[in-house]
Amino acid sequence: MTENTAGTTGTRLSILTDTVGRLTAELAAVRDALDAIAAEPPPPPAPTVTPTLLTVEQAAERLGLSRTAVYALIADGALKSIQIGKRRRVPAVAADEYVARLLNGAA
Known about the structure:
The protein is mostly helical. It has two domains: about 1-45; about 55-105. The protein has four helices and three strands. It has helices spanning about 5-40, 55-65, 65-75, 90-105, and strands spanning about 55, 80-85, 85-90. A three-stranded antiparallel beta sheet has the order 1-3-2. A hairpin with a 2-residue loop joins strand 2 (about 80-85) and strand 3. Helix 2 crosses helix 3.
């Protein structure tokens, strides 16, 4: 190896060593930042909105019945509902009242 080649190799090695040291420090900083994020408590869950008026499908799901059964209960007057334009809605309290009447044997 000539002296010039040895000097160039030494310079390259020094640059690589500096680069590895800088990248190692940056990686440690990133790891510390990620550890800090992971240590933070999770955000609280978003509040859920309970609908006041249920679609017939939602009322059916809530009561564990079919759509047809819910429409039959509405037609029989056993389940209160309201008409909004062309849409039929079941007040959530009406579904609860229906269940309460079933539990009391008065449905």
